[in-house]
UniProtKB/TrEMBL annotation:
Keywords: Cobalamin biosynthesis, Methyltransferase, S-adenosyl-L-methionine, Transferase
Domain Methyltransferase: residue ranges: 31-146
Methyltransferase is among the record's keywords: yes
Gene: cbiT
First and last residue of the signal peptide: none
Name of the protein this chain belongs to: Putative cobalt-precorrin-6Y C(15)-methyltransferase [decarboxylating]
Organism: Caloramator mitchellensis
Annotated metabolic or biological route of this protein: Cofactor biosynthesis; adenosylcobalamin biosynthesis
Domain of life of the native organism: Bacteria
One protein family per Pfam: Methyltransf_31
Listed GO biological process terms: cobalamin biosynthetic process; methylation
CDD domains cross-referenced by the UniProt entry: AdoMet_MTases (cd02440)
Lineage: Bacteria, Bacillati, Bacillota, Clostridia, Eubacteriales
């Protein structure tokens, strides 16, 4: 079950839109019992979709307004999510996980990705979304240099309004990186 954007409580907190969220969740290949971490969880839309698929979810968010929305959305959709109010780099070392979504990094992407690399299990998947090409390229180079298998897509969505005019959303780079099963030498 994929949840429509308008069903989430949102306020002014950024949210991964339906089409990009659906693609990101599909690329994460979430299975029942996966340990899943959502970094920069925003409204919790990715966390909630992952929980509905059976993952054990940890949502990390530093913004207080967003934290309350994650709680309210989790209640609304009747899912259990561990919500942590912190900077990702302050809590990731204490976690181990199979799947990870990077929705926001607060300009600490390289540092966060280094920690994720250490904590993500072999064969694990990280999916990241970027508006800026420079950030997508930086992530791709970083993950490739660590021996990950990397695939990138550009998702561009426009929606028609009541007057028949198309209103474009920002194009989003969706990057999937899979941690290799063998130890790199």
């Amino acid at each position: 079950m994929f949840i429509k954007d308008e069903d989430f409580l949102r306020d002014r907190v950024p949210m991964t839109k339906f089409e990009v969220r659906s693609i990101s969740i599909a690329l994460l290949d979430i299975n029942k019992g996966d340990k899943f971490v959502d970094i920069g969880a925003g409204t919790g839309s990715i966390s909630i979709q992952a929980a509905l698929l059976g993952a054990d979810v940890v949502a990390i968010e530093r913004d207080k307004e967003a934290l309350e929305l994650i709680r309210k959305n989790a209640e609304k959709f009747k899912v259990e999510i561990e919500i942590i109010h912190a900077k990702a780099e302050d809590v990731l070392n204490g976690l181990e996980f199979d799947k990870c979504f990077l929705g926001g990094s607060g300009n600490e992407m390289d540092y966060i990705v280094d920690i994720v690399d250490r904590k993500l299990r072999r064969g694990g998947i990280i999916v990241a979304n970027f508006i800026k090409l420079s950030n997508a390229n930086k992530f791709i180079e970083n993950m490739s240099s660590k021996g990950y298998s990397v695939a990138t897509s550009l998702v561009s969505v426009s929606r028609m309004d009541e007057n028949g005019l198309l209103k474009a959303n920002n194009p989003i780079f969706v990057v999937k990186a899979v941690k290799c099963l063998e130890v790199q030498s």
